[in-house]
Design goal:
The protein has 171 residues and is of the alpha+beta class. The protein contains 7 helices and 4 strands; from the N terminus they run E-E-H-H-H-H-E-H-E-H-H. The protein has a two-stranded antiparallel sheet with strand order 1-2. Strands 3-4 form a two-stranded antiparallel sheet. A hairpin with a 2-residue loop joins strand 1 (19-23) and strand 2. The longest helix has 17 residues, at 74-90.
């Protein structure tokens, strides 16, 4: 796919349009960043998530009411904690110091995803080399929903938000 004539179907950019967005039997040109960020979202859901991030970053107090958040099942919390523990082991951190499910639940209770304002199901580490330990919670971690956490991965926050604003503007 020649990158000079194609525009990304999500952000409208024309740089590094070498990927394809495959969905329901159709293929559209896609840039490297959108391909990286999209996770498993459909194009429409990706654009909707980008718009929520744009709106929440502009007006963080207009977020979804906490009363709309359904309780997260213990199974989900268990999966999040196991994932955090595996990440700590990979980073060489002491897995016995990884925060417990109780600490995780208490930290996100009454808060919203710091990126899009949805109900959080875990934590996003602001610095990817940080371990999931209680002493790091206040300054190096933020409550985050699954999709935002998955989309941002290890990208710098400013780069991620800037790109989501581009996707939002390309409606």
């Amino acid at each position: 796919m020649p990158s000079t004539t194609q525009r990304c179907c999500a952000c409208g950019g024309d740089r590094n349009v070498v990927r394809e967005w495959r969905e329901k039997g159709t293929t559209r040109p896609c840039c490297d960043l959108c391909h990286f960020y999209r996770s498993k979202l459909s194009l429409q859901n990706f654009k909707d998530k980008a718009s929520r991030i744009h709106a929440h970053r502009a007006h963080p107090y207009r977020a979804v009411s906490q009363t709309l958040c359904a309780p997260v099942s213990p199974t989900v919390w268990s999966k999040r904690r196991n994932s955090m523990r595996k990440n700590d082991i990979r980073r060489g951190c002491d897995p016995n110091k990884t925060m417990s499910q109780t600490e995780l639940r208490a930290f996100v209770k009454g808060k919203l995803c710091y990126l899009c304002g949805a109900c959080p199901t875990g934590l996003d580490r602001l610095h990817t080399d940080t371990c999931y330990q209680a002493q790091n919670m206040q300054h190096q971690m933020k409550p985050c929903c699954y999709h935002c956490n998955r989309m941002r991965r290890d990208t710098q926050l400013k780069t991620f938000v800037t790109h989501m604003n581009r996707v939002h503007a390309n409606k």
